[in-house]
Amino acid sequence: MTYIDKTSLPHCYVVEKKFEWGEPYTSIKPIFNVGADPGLSDIEFTIELLGQNNFKAILAKLYNILLNHEEQQRLDHFEGPVTDRSLLLEKINTYLAENAPYKSPWEEEDEYGQEYELLYLEIIETELQRNLCYERARYT
Fold it and tell me: In the chain, how many domains are there?
């Protein structure tokens, strides 16, 4: 059975399959919204992309980084000053509130959720050929 799961954000393409020995499994592939305005600054583009695709954990971390004026030290691929910090913080809060009721597909993965989240972001960067501004350090 193949369908699109619209209960998660981002929506997912779901295919129910079976291994050659007959055991069933489900293949889930997120359908990312990459329709952010390419004319935005790198930080604004990153916020739009993270918000539209429910990357809550990374978005919350980005909020704290911007709030504490630590973007120069902690964000990879960050260039230039933040011109309207309060607007960026408000936009992040809006996305966090809008996405609160939704689960992202990688949240289901207890042990590897953060790894999937970062892997998906790397794939998006490769496909868009544009670097995103977020902290890539992994804390365990």
Answer: 1
